[in-house]
Specification:
Blueprint: H1 2-33, H2 36-39, H3 49-68, H4 73-86, H5 88-96, H6 109-116, H7 119-133
């Protein structure tokens, strides 16, 4: 029973790793696939929305790829956390706009709050825990 539990935990940790990687890679690709969808979420005090969007997408893709590689997982976890911190102004802006930044992007105000807290912090925790769960020594693929 104990051996089965350990194997199940190991499999769940690997699944978490690949779901996290896929999440950030797909999110990053979406910045390039439909960049205009992100422009309205970028606060107006950022000068070049196109550049901000390109950098956001590129860093998400890079973070997702680096999390796959065992020797770069820790760096990737830090990068994901930094990205999520960098996205906080966009979430605050969405809250300031009462959840509606355009006709396309309009959510209930409570959803805008949840996107900031607790979602951002849960995503930070998930990135860090995925790195910790899948350290090189403990991941035997």
């Amino acid at each position: 029973m104990l051996k089965e539990n350990k194997n199940t935990n190991h499999v769940l940790k690997i699944i978490s790793l690949f779901v996290l990687c896929s999440f950030y890679i797909v999110a990053g690709i979406n910045h390039f696939r439909d960049p205009k969808a992100y422009y309205d979420l970028i606060p107006p005090y950022f000068p070049d929305h196109s550049l901000v969007n390109i950098l956001s997408g590129a860093f998400e893709i890079i973070a997702g790829i680096l999390m796959v590689i065992p020797v770069t997982r820790k760096f990737s976890a830090y990068l994901i956390i930094a990205i999520l911190i960098a996205f906080i102004p966009a979430h605050i802006y969405l809250i300031q706009m009462k959840g509606c930044v355009s006709k396309k992007i309009c959510v209930a105000e409570w959803i805008a709050w949840i996107r900031l807290f607790p979602s951002q912090f849960i995503l930070m925790w998930w990135a860090w825990k995925t790195y910790k769960w899948n350290k090189i020594k403990s991941l035997n693929l």
